[in-house]
Specification:
- Pfam families: DUF1679 (PF07914).
- This is CHK domain-containing protein.
- By secondary structure, the protein is an all-alpha fold.
- The protein has one domain.
- The chain has four helices and no strands.
Length: about 130
Amino acid sequence: MGNPAEDLVRLFLSTLSGADRQAHWERLLEKFYTYFLAALGDDEAPYSLEQLKECYRCFFVSGGLVMMPMYGPFAQAKLSYLKDIESVQEYQEILTEKAEHLMEDLERWHLYSRDKTNNFKEAEISK
């Protein structure tokens, strides 16, 4: 089985505005998890909601770095058929917003992951 957090990172980065993703990622994961549990029926869940959230946090940097280069080709394709200047400017603003928020979150989740790794290493050393 794959890691659904990876899919959710890519889905949120490609479909949501940066502001919406930052504001609602946790609630969206919670909603996904309720659907997941319903689909499982009586079967035991292979991971908890907190594990899903932690995987999202830890994978975000890798997923974000993979998605970032795709913004350029997507923009180029979209802008190639937009004819009026207002539509072009609007789309450029959308992409700029997504990229700015992505950069903020890359830093945020990188620092989070770094601290988690350092805490884990310190705990291992003190054993």
